[in-house]
Every structure is written in C-alpha cells, then in structure tokens.
Write a structure and sequence with these properties.
2 copies of one chain form a homodimer. Chain A starts with a helix and ends in a 16-residue tail after the last helix. Chain A is globular and about 55 Å long. The first copy, chain A, has 9 helices and 3 strands; from the N terminus they run H-E-H-H-E-E-H-H-H-H-H-H. The first copy, chain A, has a 3-stranded antiparallel sheet. The longest helix of chain A has 25 residues, at about 70-95. Chain A is mainly alpha-helical. Helices cover about 70% and strands about 5% of the residues of chain A. Chain A folds into 2 domains: about 5-65, Arc Repressor Mutant, subunit A (Orthogonal Bundle), CATH 1.10.10; about 70-210, Up-down Bundle (Four Helix Bundle (Hemerythrin (Met), subunit A)), CATH 1.20.120.530. The structure holds a DNA duplex.
Chain lengths: ~230, ~230
Amino acid sequence: MSRASDQAYATIRAHLLSGAVKAGEQLTEDQLAQITGVSRTPVREAVRRLEDELVLVRSDTKRLFVADWSRDDIEEMFTLRQMLECHAAERAAKRLTREQIAALEQVNRDLTAAVEQSPPDVVRFLDANRAFHEVIIEAADSPRLGQLLTRLVEAPVVLRTARTYSQSDLRQSARDHDELVAAFAARDPDWARAVMGSHLRRAFHTFAKAVGPRSDGAASDKDGGDA
Amino acid sequence: MSRASDQAYATIRAHLLSGAVKAGEQLTEDQLAQITGVSRTPVREAVRRLEDELVLVRSDTKRLFVADWSRDDIEEMFTLRQMLECHAAERAAKRLTREQIAALEQVNRDLTAAVEQSPPDVVRFLDANRAFHEVIIEAADSPRLGQLLTRLVEAPVVLRTARTYSQSDLRQSARDHDELVAAFAARDPDWARAVMGSHLRRAFHTFAKAVGPRSDGAASDKDGGDA
DNA sequence: TGCGTGGTTATTGTATACAAAACGCGCTCG
DNA sequence: CGAGCGCGTTTTGTATACAATAACCACGCA
C-alpha cells in the first residue's frame, strides 16, 4: 500500500504490541498521527485496517479505543479461524508443490530452532509460525479465504503478545507443524484438516489459559454455553 | 458511519448495481466524487469498503476497477459463505428467541409475496432475503462471524444483480427459508445447518448458471482483464 | 444536594490544495 | 520501422484547514 499509511499501520501495531497502551484505553487520531509522524489522513486509513481486524474499536459515538478481548472473543476468533484454516489445510494438501512443502520444512526447522533456544526466541517463533501458515494459505489458492484469515489471525497476536509462552507449548506447536508437513507430503487432505484442527484448538486453550487464569479460585470455567 | 462516506458508499453501490459501468472498467476517485456529490475523502473511505468486499479492485499500481468475478470466484465465495453461514445457522438454532423466529416467519411471508407477484418483485425479494439472513446472523451472536459474512454476501449481489431470476428459483428459495424456520422452531442445529447448506449450494448453482452457462465454456470470456 | 443547561474543549468528519507516482504519447535515435 | 526515453497529463496519496459533533465542566436553579 501507500507509504505513509503503511508506516502508520506498522507503527501503531508496534506501539500496541509494546504494551504502551492498555486494552480499553482511548486513542485519538491526532495522538497516533504524532506517534507515527504522518498526518491524520493516512492514520485514518491505518486505523480503519486495525478496526477491521478488531484490534481497535469505536464507541457508539466514533471514539477510538484499544479493543479489549474477552475470553469469549478469543474463543470465537479461534473457532472461526479453525473453520477456515482447516479448509485451507485441506485445499493446500491437494495443491502444495514440492517446493512449497520444502519451504514449510525449512520454516519449521527455523521455528524449532527458535523454540529450542533458551530462552526461546518468541519473536522468531511468531515470525516463523506466521510464515508457515502463510504458505498454507497461499497454497490453498483462495484469495478471499486468505483475506478473511489475515483479519482473524493478526488481532490476538497484537493484543496479547506481551504474554509469555511456555517452552512446552512452543514445542508442541512445532510438533504439530511437523505432522502437518507429513500430512501434506502424503497428500492427505483429511489428515491435514484434522491436524490443523487439533493444532488450533490446542492453541486456543493455551491462549485462553494465559488470558484468563481466572483469579477467582473456584471453577475455572463457569458459564458453559457456547459451542 | 459518517454521513458523507455512507452516502458515497450507497451511491456507488447503486451506481454499480444500475449497470452503468461494466465489470473490468476503470473508475477514478474524482469521477465517483462527482457522482456521489461529496469530496474525494469520504469517497476513498467508501471505496475502501467496496474493496474489502471485492466489489472494486485495484491494479498493481493502485488504479481502481470494477471487479470482474469469474465463475471460480463465485464458487469460492459461496463455499466460504456456506461454511460460515452453516455455522451461523447452527448457533442461531440454539439462540433464536421466539420473537426472532416470528420475525423470520414474517420476513419470509413478505418474501413469498414478492415471489408470487407476476412478475416477481426481485428487489423486494432481495431485501427480504437479506433481512432473513441478517436475523440469523444476529441471533448467532458472533460479531466476527457477522462481519465476515457481510463482506462475502454483498459483493456478488452488487455485481450480478442485473441478471434475471426465474420464478421457480425464487420459489425454491422461499421454501428453503420455510424449512429453515421449521428447523429453528424445532431447535435442531443439525437440521438448520443441513438446510442452510443445501440452500446456499443450490443458490450457487443457480447463480453460476446465469454467470456462465457452463464452467468450461469454450470461448465465453476472453482476456480476464482483472487487475 | 441533585440535576438540567449552556458554553467550552476535545475529537472526529469533510473539503481542498498540493505532492508523488503512473500512464500515455510523441519524439528521437539506432 | 521499431524501441527506448522524456515530458505533459491523469490519478492516487498526503497534509492541512475547517466544519460538525460529542464529551466535559461549571454554574444555576429547584
């Protein structure tokens, strides 16, 4: 995209990621313009993108806030992501070229290396993880699917990345990726879908655990409901 | 949203819907500003929304065109919509209030009336159809799901509404809705999902038939001017 | 004291002017 | 005759000024 609005987008994201502003806090376009060093026009463009990703939200009267995702929000997001990304895995299994599979292997080697460092290099892990999923989405060859997933995937990362990941979680993630590659290499769409499903569902639980360790000591999850 | 950009959005949509511009044709922001009667700023906002919906697309060098959906594009869209809207139907079946079910019945009565006119009132049909699906999405109580579906649903309508609908197609659609209401009244998520699935898949075929009488048509479309 | 009300400030929305980038055309040069 | 290049024009991108609207605060009145 355009230079300034891209920069604004990246800078605002980085700013949120840095933890400098808390969830629920108000932001103003002027503020963001100052932070990003561009005028309000491209800032508004960037803000729109972040609104689409539900990283930022507007009040009923158009005031701008950092989104505050509840556990339910996160579950919803992971449910949708699972639905779409399982579909993507299935399609990818039928379409991935040998080169793309090799690329996935390479990316996952890098991811594994990042995980096995001590301490694990979380930033590198996240980068590799994103790259991995991007290859799959690319191979799924469904532009709209890719567009929808992009929206879903980025938001929670931005909003919650301050949190810590345990090394065992990261290792399991790497193993999931290995098995996905195996499913792809076998050209088995059902296998790929299944692995992707459990991968994401586990990721949700890992994520949710960190979000709401529920200070109230009683039952961890009341309020069943949803499906 | 804001007054002017909303108006721009609606006006541009109406303009496309009117068939005044053909798929693949170039548009300029200035042009649209003139048409909508507002300045380029809100036009750009509206254009961005339409880009999100893939009604408008930009070339690699940011020039603006009316999207030209291929049959594959349409199939992709319906596949995704089916995936998401089946999920919505399932959730809605568990959540719809008696009032909402009554509303669906009312909407579908209206839809049926529109269909049974001769000639059928297609605009009224489309309105009722949209209202029907909106109630379901609302009841699914999943904001992100709603957001994603909105994007998917609107585009093909805008791009292809010039086409004619056969009365039998419309009637079948009305029957599907009736069965959906029955599934909802029975609070049967599986039934609701199944009906929604067949409803949308049939809709795809109806739609695709009009777009390209055959998928591997010999010489139907030359040079996809896409961008 | 509680609540409405008016004005003041903060914030978003829109218009316009200008800057940058891309397209197209004609011209030159091989 | 054709290919590449320069320049004017078109189109998009950005900054800034201004308008509209919402939040805030203080004040007065019951």
